[in-house]
Design brief:
The complex is a heterotrimer of chains A (288), B (322) and C (269). Chain B has 322 residues and is an all-alpha fold. Chain B has twelve helices and two strands. The mean pLDDT of chain B is 87. Classes of the chains: A mainly alpha (288), B mainly alpha (322), C alpha/beta (269). The interface between B and C is medium-sized, with 14 and 15 residues.
Chain lengths: 288, 322, 269
């Protein structure tokens, strides 16, 4: 128990300190909000000028001429994220199933849990470096969208695994027991009943991981690189939004910088939307 | 009676669609599949470590321990050292933590005890949204908007302070700007941790202390902070882990120089920013190996942070169980 | 919970002999990790009768029931030692097909647990896995099961509504229908009415009396009036031991063991 030894200083000094702390906390909150809106405002103000329908449907601009569009980068990002989902989500989900349904309290499970946390904490640029050494270097130095998707999948995996485990553990044991008691085999109990009971939470995990990777640049720098052509398949270096933003922003051409801001606005709007949606879903769950 | 039961039983057995032998082997296969996925996470961590070591090997054998202590980075002479990148990583992370810790505690305090619920909800959402902004946008905003502001307004003011920390020309980009942006990026995570800690403090304790005539800051300091100290350490680990490997935002604003300087105004680099900047241009195998060794060092640092955080958490749980 | 040493050796008081028992527990011990919860239980379950298991909370009555379909197995550290014969076969033997066992021995739990799917699917889900039925046969089976659980008239127009939309008592009858659809020979009920209101409880008790015409029921209850109303035989559990086993009518009017008398007259528990 914490011992309560409250101060015996004069009341006025104590009041003053209280006011100071109160003011500091209000100020800090205001500071956080100020920076958020500063950044939002800058991106909106610099990005909105290039936004139009053709911004989404046109090829990239040449240096110094016009704004063109981000169609190729958008398609490349979507394709890579899609492929990353195909690789990362099943493995993550089944890892979560193992932890929640089979391993639970075992020593092996806690080892796996530690590794999942570790993977979550690995800087994304190192994941890019890993994908580079294992895929790009495998064929004599061949950059590709596949390598980029592989890196993104590794980033998604721990997020999906952790949320899946948490969400499956929220399903009451009574439901497991009553399904098993009907003679339904374990794997059908899990895939047919528990997944359905936890579907909102599982979807949240997938959405969370998609939002985590869709703003990532670092893991793509040494894997997917970038490209000026339409990403027909992912076997070549692949155009994508974030590396395009990086390259354009660092370029000396004014029109490229404007495109970078426009693309930033697109990504930011998407991510803020997803974050608010997730918050809404989680609140809903909390209430029910 | 028994005959009828037998008849029923026979009927039920013969109309079995899939024998339970099938179900049992399907169960085993499914369990094995999930186990394989779980094992893959272990393999992945092992493979990352192994690959980094393997690909950094030429640099490790060439420079040995001197790699960590030398700040030389000279592609012409093929001399590489990690000291400036390690220094920059530690300094920018330290700046971020020093700024973000008190502010996140203050915001958490505001959210849990000072603000009315409706305001806490709005402010809480706003702070959370800071985490939704991707690193590269922090970088662009930092380079094109915030760094010029630092150069014109903030740095000239700080330059009047005594001491070597704020010496030199105000360039805008540099260690200090990178640290401030990192602070902003880890703020939402620290705030979330501190908020949880404050709302976990038993309300009975807070009430009884308030009933004894203490002001609300005193209540917090005397009661919530001892409780919160554990959370504070946890938050520090979390912030450390996040800030230390942050790449894009830092690459934009740190200035990318391999020189170590005491002034926070001076440009520098971090492990992650060096990788982002130089890896694709690395034209010699030794330079590539040296860069991968930098990555290895970053990996080992994050590994140590994670292990410490894990041990800390375990000791907390043990204490709570008692 | 210490068991006084002088109570061993221990002998259950038995007032009935069961001919051709469906289930026969013999010298059944049960362990939660290091602590023993059941001590040498011997119990015979009569076919097509209702057997009630009563006793103060923590006496092991649910634990005993949960051995019959081996549902305890999914938790680490829980184990049963001894023999439990189902139609003469030891269901605790290592080679037992647990999936087939659970189809034959259904179970109803304290809280109704409808699956997160429609009322129809709740009943059909297990059936589809175990029986090769045509769509028509499946629909028939679902209707038949819902009728047997006295729920058909209330839900026949809502078959595609989610199971969670029903009231608590209806949900519990849905769980009973779901279990009946597997054509079980034995139905285990673990305090099936403790979470629902008195009117719904009365309906379920009525249902249990109908069910015993087609299968064997074992019901754990903390409600002695309920045991008296619906059961043919009663076993009284105390501290993991079966103190007394006999015909319900006799046990509630003239108990043989002083502990049983104390319990049913409400002096403890």
């Amino acid at each position: 128990m914490t011992e309560l030894r409250l101060s015996h200083r004069p009341a006025t000094a104590r009041k003053a300190l209280d006011v100071f702390v109160r003011a500091f906390s209000v100020l800090s909150a205001a500071l956080g909000i100020f920076f958020l809106f500063w950044i939002l405002w800058v991106v909106l103000q610099k990005g909105h000028t290039v936004l139009s329908w053709s911004f989404f449907t046109s090829a990239p601009p040449s240096p110094g001429e016009g704004v063109g569009g981000i169609k190729y980068a958008l398609v490349g990002t979507l394709k890579m994220t899609g492929l990353a989902c195909l690789m990362g989500v099943p493995v993550g989900l089944l890892t979560g199933v193992y932890l929640a349904e089979f391993g639970r309290h075992g020593a092996f499970a806690s080892g796996v849990r530690f590794c999942v946390n570790l993977l979550m904490g690995i800087p994304s640029i190192l994941v890019g470096l890993f994908a580079y050494t294992i895929i790009v270097l495998a064929a004599p130095r061949h950059y590709s969208g596949n390598a980029g998707a592989f890196a993104l999948a590794i980033i998604m995996l721990p997020t999906v695994a952790r949320t899946s485990e948490d969400m499956l553990l929220l399903v009451p044991d009574a439901l497991r027991e009553s399904a098993l008691a009907l003679g339904i085999p374990r794997w059908r109990v899990i895939t047919g009943i528990l997944f359905r009971a936890a579907r909102k939470g599982l979807l949240t995990g997938v959405l969370l991981s998609v939002s985590r990777v869709s703003g990532e640049t670092a893991p793509l720098l040494f894997t997917a690189l970038n490209n000026n052509f339409y990403p027909k398949d992912l076997s070549q270096p692949t155009a994508n939004l974030t590396v395009t933003i990086y390259n354009y922003a660092m370029s000396p051409y004014d029109n490229w910088q404007r495109v970078a801001w426009g693309a930033s606005l697109v990504i930011m709007a998407f991510l803020l939307g997803v974050t608010l949606l997730l918050r809404f879903i989680l609140k809903e769950r909390h209430r029910s | 009676m028994t005959l009828r039961r037998l008849a029923n039983l026979w009927k039920a057995q013969t109309s079995f669609r899939k024998t339970s032998a099938f179900h049992r082997s399907a169960d085993r296969a499914f369990r094995l599949l999930t186990l394989l996925c779980a094992v893959s996470t272990l393999l992945l961590v092992g493979a990352i470590l192994w690959n980094l070591v393997e690909n950094a090997w030429p640099s490790i054998t060439r420079f040995g321990l001197g790699f960590v202590t030398s700040s030389q980075w000279n592609p012409v002479k093929s001399q590489y050292g990690a000291a400036s990148s390690i220094y920059g990583t530690l300094v920018s992370t330290a700046i971020a933590l020093i700024l973000a810790l008190p502010i996140s505690v203050a915001i958490a305090l505001f959210l849990t005890s000072y603000a009315p619920p409706w305001l806490a909800r709005i402010v809480g959402t706003c702070v959370e949204l800071l985490a939704a902004i991707p690193s590269i946008i922090y970088g662009m905003w930092g380079l094109f908007v915030f760094a010029p502001y630092m150069q014109k307004t903030v740095q000239p003011m700080l330059a009047k302070l005594p001491g070597p920390l704020f010496d030199g020309a105000p360039l805008g980009v540099g260690m200090l700007t990178a640290g401030i942006i990192l602070a902003l990026m880890i703020l939402p995570f620290l705030t979330a941790v501190m908020r949880d800690v404050f709302s976990m403090t038993p309300p009975v304790l807070l009430e009884s202390a308030a009933g004894m005539g203490s002001t609300s800051w005193e209540v917090t300091r005397k009661i919530a902070i001892p409780y919160g100290l554990r959370g504070l350490i946890g938050a520090t680990f979390l912030g450390l882990g996040r800030a230390i490997g942050e790449t894009m935002a830092v690459t934009f604003v740190i200035g990318n120089s391999h020189r170590i300087s005491t002034s926070l105004f001076a440009p520098g680099n971090t492990i992650a920013s060096t990788l982002a900047n130089e890896f694709n241009e690395a034209d010699s195998p030794l330079l590539e190996a040296a860069l991968i060794e930098l990555g290895l060092i970053l990996f080992v640092i994050t590994l140590i942070i994670q292990i410490l955080a894990h041990l800390w958490l375990r000791s907390l749980q043990k204490r709570q169980a008692r | 919970m210490n068991v006084p040493a002088q109570e061993t050796p221990f002998e259950t008081v038995r007032d009935v002999v069961i001919e051709n028992p469906v289930i026969s527990a013999q010298q059944l011990d049960f362990w939660y990790g290091q602590s023993q919860a059941l001590f040498a239980n011997d119990l015979d379950i009569a076919p097509r009768k209702v057997t009630a298991i009563i006793g103060p909370s923590g006496c092991g009555k649910s634990t005993h029931l949960r051995v019959y379909n081996r549902i305890f197995e999914q938790y680490r550290g829980q184990r049963a030692v001894g023999r439990v014969l189902l139609d003469g076969q030891d269901l605790l033997a290592p080679g037992t097909d647990v999936i087939a066992l659970r189809r034959r021995v259904g179970m109803i739990f304290q809280k109704p647990t409808p699956f997160p799917m429609s009322i129809f699917e709740n009943v059909a889900y297990g059936v589809r896995l175990h029986f090769a039925f045509s769509r028509k046969e499946l629909e028939q089976k679902v209707e038949e099961s819902l009728r047997a659980a006295a729920l058909w008239d209330e839900v026949k127009d809502l078959l595609h509504k989610p199971g969670t939309a029903l009231s608590g008592g209806q949900q519990q009858r849905l769980c009973i229908a779901r279990a009946l659809a597997m054509s079980p020979e034995v139905l285990l009920m673990d305090e099936p009415t403790s979470a629902i209101d008195p009117v719904a409880t009365a309906r379920i008790e009525e249902l249990v009396l109908q069910l015993k015409e087609r299968l064997t029921v074992v019901i754990v209850t903390h409600n002695m009036q309920q045991a008296a109303r619906i059961s043919d035989n009663t076993a009284f559990f105390h501290l993991g031991r079966i103190i007394e086993f006999g015909a319900t009518a006799k046990m509630f009017t003239n108990p043989s063991h002083p502990k049983t008398e104390e319990y049913i007259t409400g002096r403890f528990g």
